[in-house]
Amino acid sequence: MHKRLIQITLVIKAYPVMQEYNFTKRTELLYDVNIDDENGQRCYFSLVKDKDYWQIGPELLLPNWVSENESDLLSAFHSVENMELIGQFYNN
Questions:
Q1: What local confidence, expressed as pLDDT, does residue 91 receive?
Q2: Tens of pLDDT along 43-73?
Q3: Model pTM?
Q4: How far apart are CA 52 and CA 59, in angstroms?
Q5: With contact defined as beta carbons under 8 Å apart, do 49 and 30 qualify?
Q6: Which domain of life is it from (predicted)?
Q7: Under 8 Å between Cβ of 35 and 51
Q8: Beta pairing partners, 48
Q9: CA 75, 77, 79, 82: dihedral to nearest 10 degrees?
Q10: Is the Cβ–Cβ distance between 49 and 29 less than 8 Å?
Q11: What is the rounded CA–CA span in Å between residue 65 and residue 56?
Q12: CA-CA distance, 12 to 43, in Å (whole number)?
């Protein structure tokens, strides 16, 4: 059985601007995330699931604006990731 690549883009307000977060599902417990900062520099990190809780992976040098907006990011991601559509699409 082939698994489909799931990619999600969320636009989240990261004060003072809107930021586009791109998620790529690797496994049921791991997403790769990338975003552009205001200078066009890419920032990469991962979201890791521990039980029912998503958290930013162990990357060491995340920009402050990512860390400061972590709760908004995780809340928006959790809402979308839990949508039944994603689970059905990924498992077909």
A1: 52
A2: 899 999 988 888 998 867 788 888 888 888 8
A3: 0.78
A4: 21
A5: yes
A6: Bacteria
A7: no
A8: 30, 55
A9: -130
A10: yes
A11: 13
A12: 15
**Residue given tokens 């907006």 in the structure block:** 69
> Measured between alpha carbons, how far is 8 from 21 in angstroms, rounded to an integer?
8
Rounded Cα distance between 92 and 52, Å, is 23
- The dihedrals phi and psi of 2, each to the nearest 5 degrees, come to -95, 135
Residue whose structure tokens are 């997403």: 31
C-beta separation of 15 from 69 below 8 A: yes
Residue 3 neighbours by CB under 8 Å, 6+ apart: 90
Nearest to 76 by CA among 24, 2, 12: 12
Find the mean pLDDT for residues 5-33: 86
